[in-house]
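Try this one yourself first.
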């Protein structure tokens, strides 16, 4: 076994948690067994921070597979959306100086921003309650490389946002994650501070904290010492590189190290940035107009894990997967920076926290383990009613579906993969709870105007699904009416559906055509009915008036829908 690492010589320091002391040296073998990497593979840079000090760090796996360069605590990683918390901190600095008001609308700071029916305030952008469409999704709809190995800047994202004529929802009424909102925040910071985003963060955050190896990457050609390469796992245990060639920031764009992030952690316990009560301001949760409180604060998720408050925000772009999971009451933080796409830094950080904070977590109740036979454990629901509820349900709000299946006199729910189905336990004749969700996900079956539907509630979020016919087209002739050219002004993009030999193809702008019928066995495409087509990164819903096609709407879970008009 080849284990590549560099460790701090701090293993004999005691770890004090809630009045208890542990020798960290006694725990390193367990941590190493959890994190070990065999062979020339990507992996993690790990940091354990207590009281603002990096008390243990180690690298697992390689930062560069071409040259077998090991990961260390000084390896520089692109941290994706984890960078959003630095954007939020920059806004707090401007607020302290009296230059920014979170209640002010965007147009107060950016006069060229489009006006919608309802004003969007700065705080809406921070908490993802603005309704602004997700820019990553819009780029994919434009035909951007699905690997995101394309050149674009924050200005490009801002211009794309300005072209959008509609929002996902009325600002303040809903939470829906939008990186586009943070691109707008970066533009606000530049306008208010009269400095480039990179300069402002360097002078006001990174320099005061002595984060010498952290910066906003606004030039992808820049030479970065100790930079990690990101990788995507492919077949037979091999990997492909994923290269950063974009220069966008605000929603991401930061390169940093475990050593520097330990210094950032210190800012949440000490007044280093000159902002009084900094941590509580960063931990301030968003709120909807109806009074519901979100778990999303200022670019940080604030929640609870086994009785302990947790603060974190992961990041994932290209092949990078990162997180920084803080237990504020214990003043203990687990940092994991990874360079392989299928890593789970949040889950792995929690596993490490279980070792480091051993004996301090609440014990979980044993989970139910049974395959139900009938409704003997539930409220009794007639078999005929349960059978009628089986089928496919679609939400027009966020463009995705759930399947309800009936088996062994019981109902199950899945996302199209029967292997990932979850049992629905009846609470009443119409309401169910999703097994394994600890009661957090409720499913309510309804009938509206004689049409079956269901509502799914999880936390403060509610989605309404309508039952639909998922029968796919049976022949190429069924799809003749969809042949043509479709245009979107908002995306400045053309989609062309055309027949070739015995298949139907889709060409996005000048990209290589995609075969959409018949479907290849390895295709990411799925016909969710004769008028609905999932093309791997978005759902197309054709607008059909009798047999004449007017256009289509494409969307995903972060974009309700962008309309394409049929022009030819």
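Now uncover the answer:
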């Amino acid at each position: 076994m080849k284990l590549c690492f560099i460790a701090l010589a701090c293993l004999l320091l005691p770890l004090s948690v809630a009045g208890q002391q542990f020798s960290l040296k006694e725990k390193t073998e367990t941590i190493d067994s959890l994190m070990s990497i065999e062979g020339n593979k990507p992996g993690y840079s790990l940091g354990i921070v207590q009281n603002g000090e990096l008390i243990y760090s180690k690298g697992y796996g390689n930062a560069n597979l071409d040259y077998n360069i090991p990961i260390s605590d000084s390896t520089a990683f692109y941290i994706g959306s984890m960078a959003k918390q630095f954007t939020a901190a920059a806004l707090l600095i401007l607020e302290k100086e009296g230059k920014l008001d979170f209640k002010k609308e965007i147009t107060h700071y950016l006069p060229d921003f489009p006006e919608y029916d309802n004003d969007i305030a700065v705080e809406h952008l921070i908490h993802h309650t603005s309704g602004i469409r997700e820019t990553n999704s819009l780029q994919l709809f434009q035909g951007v490389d699905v690997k995101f190995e394309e050149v674009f800047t924050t200005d490009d994202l801002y211009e794309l946002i300005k072209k959008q004529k509609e929002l996902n929802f009325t600002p303040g009424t809903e939470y829906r994650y939008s990186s586009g909102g943070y691109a707008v925040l970066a533009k606000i910071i530049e306008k208010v501070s009269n400095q480039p985003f990179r300069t402002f963060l360097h002078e006001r955050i990174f320099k005061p904290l002595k984060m010498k190896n952290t910066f906003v990457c606004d030039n992808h050609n820049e030479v970065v010492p100790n930079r990690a390469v990101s990788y995507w796992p492919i077949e037979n245990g091999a990997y492909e590189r994923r290269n950063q060639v974009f220069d966008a920031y605000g929603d991401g764009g930061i390169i940093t190290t475990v050593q520097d992030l330990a210094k950032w952690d210190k800012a949440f316990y000490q007044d280093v940035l000159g902002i009084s009560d900094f941590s509580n301001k960063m931990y301030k949760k968003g709120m909807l107009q109806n009074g519901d409180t979100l778990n999303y604060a200022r670019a940080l998720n604030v929640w609870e894990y086994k009785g302990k408050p947790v603060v974190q925000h992961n990041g994932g772009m290209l092949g990078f997967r990162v997180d920084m999971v803080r237990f504020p009451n214990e003043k203990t933080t687990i940092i994991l920076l990874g360079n392989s796409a299928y890593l789970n830094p949040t889950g792995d950080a929690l596993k490490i926290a279980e070792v480091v904070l051993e004996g301090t977590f609440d014990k979980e109740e044993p989970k139910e383990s049974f395959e139900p036979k009938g409704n003997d454990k539930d409220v009794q629901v007639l078999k005929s009613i349960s059978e009628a509820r089986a089928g496919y349900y679609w939400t027009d709000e966020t463009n995705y579906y759930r399947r309800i299946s009936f088996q062994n006199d019981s109902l199950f729910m899945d996302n199209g993969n029967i292997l990932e189905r979850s049992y629905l336990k009846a609470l009443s004749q119409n309401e169910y709870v999703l097994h394994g969700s600890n009661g957090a996900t409720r499913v309510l079956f309804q009938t509206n105007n004689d049409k079956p539907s269901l509502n799914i509630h999880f936390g403060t979020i509610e989605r309404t699904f309508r039952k639909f016919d998922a029968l796919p087209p049976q022949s190429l002739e069924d799809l003749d009416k969809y042949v043509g050219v479709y245009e979107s002004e908002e995306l400045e993009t053309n989609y062309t559906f055309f027949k070739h030999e015995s298949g139907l193809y889709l060409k996005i702008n000048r990209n290589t055509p995609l075969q959409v019928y018949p479907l290849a066995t390895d295709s990411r495409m799925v016909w969710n009915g004769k008028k609905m087509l999932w093309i791997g990164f978005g759902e197309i819903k054709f607008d059909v008036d009798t047999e004449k096609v007017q256009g289509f709407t494409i969307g995903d879970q972060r974009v309700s829908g962008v309309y394409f008009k049929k022009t030819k």
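Discussion: The chain has twelve helices and 33 strands. The first helix runs from residue 28 to 35.
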